[in-house]
């Protein structure tokens, strides 16, 4: 049944991917009306998040962010479908990478790089960075959370590996990275580190978007154990269907960084990106569903 569902979904998505962008954006506008105006998909969560993050803004200002977010969210969906049928040339014209020389310089002496990014703009398109490195023998990968539905998991893996990137299941992250390092492979691994860690794995809290927030420290721990350099990918939406991502160095010597400094630097950079244009972040997630007191009480009972 999973295979049958996979093929049904794949055919449906591929047929949509054949459509030109101008048609896909008409479908996106129609989807916006249904998702936002009729279904109100996670609207309560979005409004609570925006109100807590921007208490200084008026209700009308937050409403404008909310509406722009849902427009972008629907664009993200159709743009992701398009990955099933888009040429390398068109992808490179629409997804531009700036300062990639920084990564090349860091990898010049055989080192590898860990790359922070967030659920901002169209994060799925970031896998096209592989087109920049395809002739250099580097392994580019991303960490992903396995979906419960096998058909959907297989489908998204196909989309995310469209440009040849290696998809690494979250639970296998450290094992795979160490294996590749031991094999002498140079790797660039992307981490989506702007979501809530499982409560058992919360070790660090910091102010983020006006709220005390638990954050992932796993990327920093991996960097300190391996010595891999760390960068941040700062994304911008230039116009509909066009993005720019700029590589910014966090550290080329993680073992010398004070504890939590790498994590803190990323969080401050991610916050700056979001504040530049809040509508392009993924506001539908329950980012602040537990307080520090609740988490610490749960950890003490463990």
UniProtKB/TrEMBL annotation:
Keyword annotations of the record: Acyltransferase, Cell inner membrane, Cell membrane, Membrane, Transferase, Transmembrane, Transmembrane helix
Any Pfam family hit: Lip_A_acyltrans
GO molecular function: acyltransferase activity
Subcellular location: Cell inner membrane
Claim: Chloroplast is one of the keywords in the record: no
Transmembrane segments: 6-27
Chief location: membrane
PANTHER family assigned to the protein according to its UniProt record, in alphabetical order: LIPID A BIOSYNTHESIS LAUROYL ACYLTRANSFERASE, PHOSPHATIDYLINOSITOL MANNOSIDE ACYLTRANSFERASE
Name this protein carries in UniProt: Lysophospholipid acyltransferase family protein
Source species: Dysgonomonas termitidis
């Amino acid at each position: 049944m999973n295979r049958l569902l996979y093929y049904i979904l794949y055919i449906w998505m591929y047929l949509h991917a054949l459509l030109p962008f101008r048609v896909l954006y008409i479908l996106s506008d129609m989807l916006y009306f249904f998702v936002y105006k009729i279904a109100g998909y996670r609207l309560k969560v979005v409004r609570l998040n925006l109100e807590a993050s921007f208490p200084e803004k008026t209700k009308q200002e937050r409403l404008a962010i909310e509406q722009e977010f849902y427009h972008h969210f629907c664009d993200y969906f159709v743009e992701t479908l398009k990955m099933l049928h888009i040429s390398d040339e068109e992808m490179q014209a629409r997804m531009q990478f700036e300062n990639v020389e920084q990564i090349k310089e860091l990898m010049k002496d055989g080192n590898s790089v860990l790359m922070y990014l967030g659920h901002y703009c169209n994060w799925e398109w970031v896998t096209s960075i592989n087109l920049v490195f395809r002739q250099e023998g580097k392994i580019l990968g991303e960490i992903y959370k396995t979906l419960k539905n096998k058909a959907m998991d297989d489908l998204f893996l196909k989309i995310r590996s469209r440009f040849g990137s290696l998809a690494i299941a979250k639970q296998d992250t450290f094992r795979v990275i160490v294996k590749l390092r031991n094999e002498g492979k140079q790797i660039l691994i992307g981490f989506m580190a702007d979501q809530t860690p499982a409560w058992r794995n919360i070790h660090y809290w910091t102010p983020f978007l006006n709220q005390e927030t638990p954050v992932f420290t796993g990327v920093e721990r991996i960097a300190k154990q391996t010595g891999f350099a760390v960068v941040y990918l700062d994304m911008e939406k230039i116009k509909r269907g066009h993005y720019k991502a700029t590589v910014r160095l966090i550290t080329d010597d993680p073992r010398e960084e004070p504890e939590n400094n790498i994590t803190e630097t990323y969080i401050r950079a991610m916050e700056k990106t979001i504040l530049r244009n809040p509508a392009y972040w993924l506001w539908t997630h329950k980012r602040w569903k537990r307080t520090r007191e609740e988490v610490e009480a749960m950890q003490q009972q463990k």
